[in-house]
Design a protein that fits this description.
8 strands, 2,3-Dihydroxybiphenyl 1,2-Dioxygenase, domain 1, alpha/beta, GlyoxalaseI/FosfomycinResist, 3 helices, 2 domains, four-stranded mixed sheet, about 140 residues
């Protein structure tokens, strides 16, 4: 039996943004700038959209409630009584201990202290000012 379905070849997709929905865009970008040394690429006039330079992918922030979230089913914000959100941001940093200490001084909540993993990466976990989980990780060499 032959198939009449033809396969379409497409170019690989490029990750454009990682978008985090946050209660206060300006407060969040100020914190990420201090915590990770990220620079603001764009903050729109309404201050309801911000983009930060992170290398090849953009980290963007936008409010929890807006037209787009309403049409896609809403956004649940992490809270103490709820389990964490289902996204994790991983920042590669050259000195895990120094980065861990620095973000804690800026109000991040420690989840795990820095530790060596069996796959050759040193990692620590924190929660940002909005309760989102961030992994601080070293490069993984293959």
């Amino acid at each position: 039996m032959t198939s009449t379905h033809e396969s379409t070849v497409i170019s690989p997709a490029k990750l454009g943004y990682v978008i985090m929905y946050v209660p206060d865009v300006e407060k969040t970008i100020a914190w990420y700038s201090k915590a990770f040394g990220l620079s603001v690429r764009r903050l729109d006039n309404s201050h309801r959209w911000a983009e930060m330079e992170t290398g090849s992918t953009t980290l963007a922030f936008t409010p929890l409630e807006q037209h787009e979230t309403a049409i896609t089913g809403g956004v649940e914000h992490p809270a103490e009584q709820n389990p964490r959100g289902n996204i994790e941001i991983n920042f590669i940093v050259p000195d895990i201990e120094a980065a861990f200490k620095h973000v804690l001084q800026l109000g991040a909540k420690a989840v795990t202290k820095p530790e060596e993993k069996p796959w050759g990466q040193k990692v620590a976990y924190v929660e940002d000012l909005n309760g989102n989980v961030i992994r601080l990780g070293s490069e993984v060499w293959q």
